[in-house]
């Protein structure tokens, strides 16, 4: 982690290259690409709502005299961003900091190249204010390595309110009601489900169905504990049946569609619902729409008692440059501060990752969401999202993505999908 530079260099290059490694400038791996007084921050926040939220960090830094060099890599859930980050690190040119998720944060920490955030965390009482399920990922071997921006949850439905009114649709309480309302929209000539056909989005919808069909214990067994019996079970077969049913209500242009374009279909009244994490709300807010009036938010029917979460962590790359070190600590302090946690979530659609804040300034969806996250944290039903790297390491996540997306894009029978899912997970873990 915050080990000295030479040790880090040696770890990365191997002992055979030792003389060469020692001859290298000590700045080789340092976060030294940003000009003086600037932080370079790798992230995938490129949609309207995301960029606004990121702007809140840039503004805070600017107030403290710190400049901003943005390093955006478009692509939801960070799939592309992680590839770019890997190549920056391999070429010895890390940014000052990067947005990462759950298991990826642990992975970077294990490679021994991150700055410790322990001092800031201690001063800010992070051990007390951030929930345990999140600390498991933001700390490595007892040390803080990631500053949590927020808590997002993936089990939300975003709905167009005037379409609901026009079609006489009440907020569905059960899975059957949910499907019936989608059918109503389809029969009236609308798209029921705004859908983005990308692997991480397929799995976001899938994990919603897992929770809705099997409940929290089943979700944990199958997607977190990776229990082969749960993965290849009658319940999982039923999950795939439900997913197949849901897919009847997407449109034919869904393959490859970005998540925010799917959100725009709901915003523009082309589609009734989108199942998506609450960053989707950032798009509605960015279009000046109000929850309860212009759009509705509700937990995916059947998932009210649990929350599948992800949280963006800012990790900082180890550097010898004292100014960069200072700026990294300042950035971590800002991200963890009560005021920033509220401001950021107001743009991003999330809820604060700190559990000790007043919800007064949050909108109606986030107020409810914040309460649900808090009670899920108490009841052990705050569970990591598979699609967003909080349920299983990247190798398993990618294996799951493959199976779910082949199911979505073919006529694969449900029992075959369950069997293949179990086999793919086993292959990725053995
Ligand atoms: C998630 C990330 C969110 C949001 C989303 C879509 O993985 O945690 O902050 O940006 O991807 O890009």
Describe, in plain words, how this protein is organized in 3D.
The chain has helices at 5-13, 18-23, 48-63, 79-90, 102-110, 118-123, 126-129, 132-138, 161-167, 175-187, 199-224, 228-231, 234-247, 259-267, 279-286, 322-336, 338-348, 364-379, 394-408, 414-429, and strands spanning 38-43, 67-72, 97-100, 139-140, 143-144, 146-148, 152-153, 156-160, 191-193, 271-275, 295-299, 307-310, 313-316, 382-384. The chain is α/β, with parallel strands linked by helices. It folds into 2 domains: 6-152 and 311-377, Periplasmic binding protein-like II (D-Maltodextrin-Binding Protein, domain 2, 3-Layer(aba) Sandwich); 154-309 and 381-429, D-Maltodextrin-Binding Protein, domain 2. Strands 2-1-3-13-6 form a 5-stranded mixed sheet, sandwiched between helices. It has a 4-stranded mixed sheet with strand order 9-10-8-11, with helices on both faces. The chain has a 3-stranded mixed sheet with strand order 7-12-14. The longest helix has 26 residues, at 199-224. It is globular. The protein starts with a helix and ends with a helix. 52% of the residues are buried. The structure holds beta-D-galactopyranose. Beta-D-galactopyranose binds next to loops.
């Amino acid at each position: 982690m915050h080990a000295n530079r030479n040790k880090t260099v040696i770890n990365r290059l191997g002992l055979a290259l030792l003389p060469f490694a020692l001859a290298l400038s000590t700045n080789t791996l340092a976060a030294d690409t940003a000009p003086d007084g600037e932080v370079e921050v790798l992230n995938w926040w490129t949609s309207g709502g995301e960029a606004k939220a990121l702007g809140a960090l840039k503004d805070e830094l600017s107030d403290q005299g710190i400049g901003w060099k943005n390093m955006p890599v478009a692509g939801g859930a960070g799939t592309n961003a992680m590839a770019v980050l890997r190549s920056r690190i391999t070429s010895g040119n890390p940014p000052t900091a990067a947005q990462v998720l759950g298991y990826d944060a642990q992975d970077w920490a294990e490679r021994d190249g991150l700055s410790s955030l322990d001092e800031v965390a201690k001063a800010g009482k992070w051990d007390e204010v951030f929930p345990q399920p999140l600390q498991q990922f933001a700390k490595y071997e007892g040390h803080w390595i990631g500053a949590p921006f927020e808590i997002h949850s993936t089990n939300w439905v975003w709905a167009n309110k005037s379409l609901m009114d026009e079609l006489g649709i009440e907020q569905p309480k059960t899975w059957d009601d949910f499907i019936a309302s989608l059918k109503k929209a389809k029969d009236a000539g609308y798209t029921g489900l705004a859908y983005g056909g990308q692997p991480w989005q397929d799995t976001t919808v899938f994990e919603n169905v897992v929770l809705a069909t099997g409940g929290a214990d089943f979700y944990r067994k199958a997607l977190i504990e990776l229990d082969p019996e749960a993965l290849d079970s009658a319940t999982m077969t039923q999950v795939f049946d439900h997913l197949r049913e849901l897919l009847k209500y997407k449109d034919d242009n869904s393959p490859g569609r970005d998540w925010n374009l799917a959100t725009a279909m709901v915003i523009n009244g082309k589609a009734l619902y989108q199942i998506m994490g609450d960053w989707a709300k950032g798009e509605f807010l960015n279009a000046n729409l109000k929850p309860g009036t212009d759009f509705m938010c509700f937990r995916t029917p059947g998932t009210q008692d649990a929350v599948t979460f992800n949280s963006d962590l800012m990790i900082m790359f180890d550097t010898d440059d004292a100014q960069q070190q200072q700026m990294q600590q300042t950035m971590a302090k800002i991200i963890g501060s009560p005021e920033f946690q509220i401001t950021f979530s107001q743009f991003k659609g999330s809820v604060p990752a700190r559990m000790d804040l007043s919800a007064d300034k949050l909108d109606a969806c986030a107020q409810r969401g914040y309460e649900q996250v808090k009670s899920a944290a108490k009841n052990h039903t705050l569970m990591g999202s598979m699609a967003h790297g909080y349920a299983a390491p990247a190798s398993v996540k990618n294996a799951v993505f493959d199976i779910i997306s082949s199911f979505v894009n073919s006529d694969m029978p449900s029992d075959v999908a369950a069997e293949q899912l179990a086999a793919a997970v086993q292959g990725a873990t053995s």
